[in-house]
Amino acid sequence: MSLVDLLDSVSAEEGALTAEEILARARAVAPRLRERAEDIENSRQLPPDVVELLRGTGVFRMARPRAWGGPELDAVQQTEVIEALATGDASAAWCAMIGMDTPIYAGFLREDVARRLLADPDAVTAGAITPTGRAERVPGGYRVTGQWRFGSGITHSTWVVGGVLVTRRGELEPGPPGAPGDWRIVVAPVEDFETEDTWYTTGLAGSGSRDYRTENLYVPEEYTFSFARPRVTGAAATSDAVLRNMPGVPLGVARAAIDHVRRMATTRVDHAARTPWAESYRVQTAVARAEMELAAARYAVYGSLREQWEVLQAGDVPTADEQVATVLARAGAFRTARSVVASLFDLVATAAVYRPSVLDRWLRDLNTMCQHVVAQDQVLQSAGARLLGGVPHNAYTVGVVP
């Protein structure tokens, strides 16, 4: 079946897409994304036709509830789809991973507002939840002012979120014990924000992760939420639901890099030793080590996600060890993928440095995504603190929201 046939082969009602269909479409689209990777990087945002390719896979509706006509993929299934897209292009997969959070955010909002957000089943949401903005309490809602960074996918989004701390008459309102204040997330149409073309980066250039800002924007109370108070129940009602499928991006990039080098090995010859790469001890060892490290990271991600999801779906609260397992697997996936691709970059040597080199781009993409907080030492500290009964420096990343 051709890609066009596959993308058109939905039943009369698009909401009938299954997890298997979405994954098959993502795998079919990956080669097209790989063909467009250089254009995506040079554009510094996803071109419109690439956005439409992603929409056609159903990736943006992955978390839409079945009760609302969606496929409601679990964390494992979501991660598999993102991983498949990342074998094609890291920036496209990153934007898919961020943009599909609309139904998750909707689960924390009043039902009538949630239905407005999901009126378009493929609506894209962008934005950062870090509370760098301020929301002055006014009758019926808030006046929001702030500037946020890393608005991945904001160039093609419908909705934008922004983390804020609530103020009253200019003073921070107190939050729960241990919190810096009353942390809320505001949701508004993308047109309510001014974007700034700041995204000149080493990697993930095509994600269009620009700064965005607003001043004195009125946001009704019902268009704001706290991760501590979900409307729905189940696994998607937890604060870290938007983080679970993130490892799919680095895992997919590392998979693509290993496959690329394995294909090279079928024709390449070590000119100094006059040995075919496929028979070279050095190459054989490097490829096997890369496969070993990626497999370990991948099994940690999927195993911990599956176990945690089952606990949450049963209505139970994960133990500290169960919660931290997904956190450490997530950080490990980012760091392992970067290490794997760096080792392959070294193996290919000078041929890897010429642009457009896919290994060069993949390594730059991984270096950039590893700067995300989920791969940083503060997350390891927070995980260790959760296990030892200490104080996490970044409680949100380990599932703790006051």
What does this protein structure show overall?
The protein is an alpha+beta fold. It has three domains: 3-106, Butyryl-Coa Dehydrogenase, subunit A, domain 1; 125-225, Beta Barrel (Butyryl-CoA Dehydrogenase, subunit A, domain 2), CATH 2.40.110.10; 247-398, Butyryl-CoA Dehydrogenase, subunit A, domain 3 (Up-down Bundle). The chain has twelve helices and ten strands. It has helices at residues 3-8, 19-43, 48-57, 75-86, 90-99, 102-106, 111-117, 248-265, 281-313, 320-348, 358-369, 377-388; strands at 125-138, 141-151, 159-168, 171-172, 183-189, 194-196, 210-220, 224-225, 269-270, 275-276. The strands form two sheets. Strands 1, 2, 3, 4, 5, 6, 7 and 8 form an eight-stranded mixed sheet that branches. A two-stranded antiparallel ribbon has the order 9-10. Helix 4 packs across helix 8, helix 5 (90-99) packs antiparallel against helix 8 (248-265) and helix 8 runs antiparallel to helix 9 (281-313). The longest helix has 33 residues, at 281-313. The radius of gyration is 22 Å and the shape is globular. It starts with a helix and ends in a 14-residue tail after the last helix. Mean pLDDT is 94; it is low at 1-15.
